[in-house]
Design brief:
This protein is mainly beta and 681 residues long. Helix content is 8%, strand content 58%.
Length: 681
């Protein structure tokens, strides 16, 4: 039986509006002028954790902010490569423009534990629960900052922020006048162009960004089975428009539209064989923020549409497509009681549609519909001028319905994939500013990783490896993965060294981990035998470790030295199916150094990681096993010359230490060098 979920969502929206009427509050800023606040406080500002503008050092989370200057100094035009600068993150490169980002030792293809947002809009795709990094529609030169949160943060950011969050914040169309264009030419016959134009005034502002990339894939050797799939030339094109309109002094409306398509060569996170994918996404967003007598009321509504076409050996090279639609409606009220207590209450409605098409041998039209209702609340208590305490809680109700037609005889005893999940998440963090130089943070997080659409409701009957009849199924009985962590951070400003020392420790426990398609055995469908695969909960895992970082600048010099430790221990079934405990290097050393003199910038980034072992299939996906990779060192750098106040010329490179680098059992990564011309107007 299908209910009118849209009517329900309007009813929920009415409830939160009514709740907002009961609590008077002080006036707050409607939109955030990051630049002015950063100049005032002398460090980056964030609003993503609590909705309230806070200095990065006051945020109730282990948060690192990569600034626009640091993005420029990295010399990279790729977000995933930029993230490799952050202690506690591990970046695995699978191809020229294909990456996976892991957090604190938990590395996995189709990474489901890291929620990725672009200006608060989810770009994380719910098919396999993953981020296609090469398809994010953003101009690198239009990014103000990238906020990196390590640890379970579902109550603050959303249900799938189980292991961490990446929030990409671009320049405001209202407060910033970012007009920039750039072009890059380099090895692998790479050519990229990007541009952003902004127009603003008393009426508000609008911003247009567009760009593209074309290149050749790395020519490093692949396995024999991999060579049976064509290697496509990497490419990307995108377009974005975002606008803010000043309707009244207390009311802003905002809109956004995006389009992006990309092609990349990557590794299938289910069968661990090489493949390729062509991805097309578009989104539309509208909302408002109203400084009402009852608080700052914000509405955020958007629709994401994603179509991914896969090319893989185990489908005989025949492409199959996956379409995912995501509708999100969020309404929140943020208000104060007195001067020390700030509250945020929010209701959220999420609707997902999922269909797949491909090389099926039994006629069927698998299609899923999922609805998620969530209520959350955050309380920020400024106990005194040195101590603050933030608490947050979120409750999710997920309902999935099978609305397509399946072949008789599939695994589900209910003959479809309909099911319900009820989960809760929480965060509690204390920040203590002991002195002007010393600060402490201690926190607990309970995060939720809901099963992906494919894990909980996928069904496809096809010819595996070109000859084996196979049945790949989701599992409606999967439990969500629960991630709990404890973290303690200490920051100390070392004035004599012009530096800040940061120490972080963590312990993390994961239960009901979900593995991808596992062999179930032979079952009969329509009178014929099929080799069946199914997703399963496979057990628990725990990890511990921390990071040490010394970062500073003086007299034109800048430095950032860090060491990360992440040790993961899996239960036996987790180790044999997911293998978190070997998938990321246990030790990671980084040294970033730069110097500016006159119009010249010189920057270098050296890293060393210890050995790891990553799941890989050498027989076309029939079986997979962990394959060890030696530790390796990498070197990237940039030399920039500011021709005048508007034009900058830069020579940048990645993987400079050797011609090719074997980072994993996947194809080796080649050296990359490119020349970039950027103009700001």
């Amino acid at each position: 039986m299908r209910t009118n979920h849209y009517c329900t969502s309007y009813f929920l929206a009415g409830l939160i509006s009514a709740a907002a009427l009961v609590a008077p509050c002080d006036a707050q800023a409607q939109t955030v002028d990051y630049g002015s606040l950063q100049s005032l406080f002398g460090e980056p500002i964030t609003t993503s954790a609590t909705g309230t503008p806070q200095k990065a050092s006051d945020a109730p989370a282990n948060m690192t902010i990569i600034t626009a200057d640091e993005i420029r100094q990295s010399g990279s035009r790729n977000i995933a490569q930029i993230l490799s600068r952050v202690p506690g993150l591990d970046v695995l490169q699978e191809g020229f423009n294909s990456f996976t980002v892991g957090v604190r030792g938990y590395q996995q293809l189709y990474q489901p534990r890291l929620l990725v947002l672009l200006d608060g809009r989810q770009v994380f795709i719910d098919d396999y629960s993953r981020t296609i990094w090469d398809n994010i529609p953003v101009n690198i030169d239009d990014i103000r900052q990238i906020e990196v949160v390590k640890g379970a943060s579902s109550a603050l950011f959303g249900s799938n922020a189980a292991g961490g969050v990446i929030n990409i914040v671009t320049y405001s169309p209202v407060y910033d006048k970012n007009n920039v264009a750039s072009a890059s030419l380099g090895t692998q016959q790479s050519l990229s162009e990007d541009a952003t134009i902004t127009e603003n005034g008393s009426w508000g502002g609008t911003k247009f960004s567009a760009g593209g990339l074309n290149a050749q894939e790395f020519g490093t050797p692949r396995l024999p089975f991999d060579d049976q799939i064509p290697s496509f030339d990497p490419q990307h094109q995108y377009f974005v428009n975002s606008s803010v309109f000043q309707l009244t002094p207390n009311l802003h409306a905002n809109t956004e539209a995006t389009y992006s398509n990309s092609t990349s060569n990557s590794i299938d996170g289910i069968t661990y064989v090489a493949g390729a994918q062509k991805t097309t996404t578009w989104s539309a967003r509208a909302g408002f923020d109203w400084q009402s007598p009852y608080g700052l009321i914000t509405s955020n509504n958007y629709y994401n549409h994603s179509f991914v076409n896969f090319f893989e050996f185990n489908n005989g090279g025949v492409p199959y497509g996956i379409t995912v639609g995501l509708l999100v409606s969020q309404l929140q009220d943020q208000f104060k009681i007195g001067t020390d207590h700030t509250f945020r209450v929010e209701l959220e409605y999420r609707h997902k549609n999922f269909t797949n098409t491909g090389a099926e041998v039994v006629p069927q039209t698998p299609e899923l519909s999922e609805n998620n209702y969530a209520v959350s609340g955050t309380w920020l208590w400024q106990v005194n001028d040195k101590l603050s305490w933030t608490n947050a809680m979120r409750v999710d109700h997920e309902q999935m319905d099978q609305i397509g037609t399946l072949a008789p005889g599939v695994f589900s005893t209910s003959a479809d994939y309909s099911h319900v999940n009820n989960t809760w998440s929480a965060n509690s963090d204390i920040v203590y500013k002991a002195t002007d130089s010393d600060s402490f943070r201690a926190g607990y997080g309970r995060g939720i990783q809901l099963p992906s659409l494919i894990q909980s409701g996928f069904d496809q009957i096809f010819i595996f490896d070109g000859f084996l009849p196979a049945d790949a199924e989701g599992n409606p009985h999967l439990k969500p993965t629960i991630v709990q962590d404890l973290g303690v951070d200490y920051d100390r400003k070392l004035a004599s060294l012009y530096s800040t020392l940061k120490l972080s420790t963590f312990y993390e426990y994961n239960q009901d981990i979900v593995a991808g398609l596992q062999a179930l055995g032979i079952q009969t469908i329509l009178g014929n035998p099929y080799f069946s695969f199914i997703s399963q909960n496979v057990g628990s895992s725990y990890g511990w470790g921390g990071e040490v970082q010394l970062k500073g600048s003086h007299g034109g010099f800048r430095w950032d030295a860090s060491y990360s430790l992440a040790r993961v221990v899996d239960q036996p079934f987790v180790a044999s199916t997911v293998d978190y405990q070997g998938s990321a290097p246990e030790h990671h050393f980084r040294l970033l150094f730069g110097y500016t003199t006159g119009p010249w910038d010189f920057d270098a980034n050296g890293q060393y990681v210890t050995p790891d072992k990553i799941l890989r299939s050498v027989d076309g996906g029939v079986t997979s096993s962990p394959i060890s990779t030696s530790g390796y060192e990498s070197l990237s750098g940039r030399i920039g010359y500011k021709v005048n106040d508007h034009i900058t010329l830069a020579l940048s490179g990645a993987n400079l230490a050797q011609t090719t680098t074997h980072e994993s059992p996947y194809p080796a990564v080649e050296r990359q060098v490119f020349l970039n011309l950027t103009g700001k107007f």
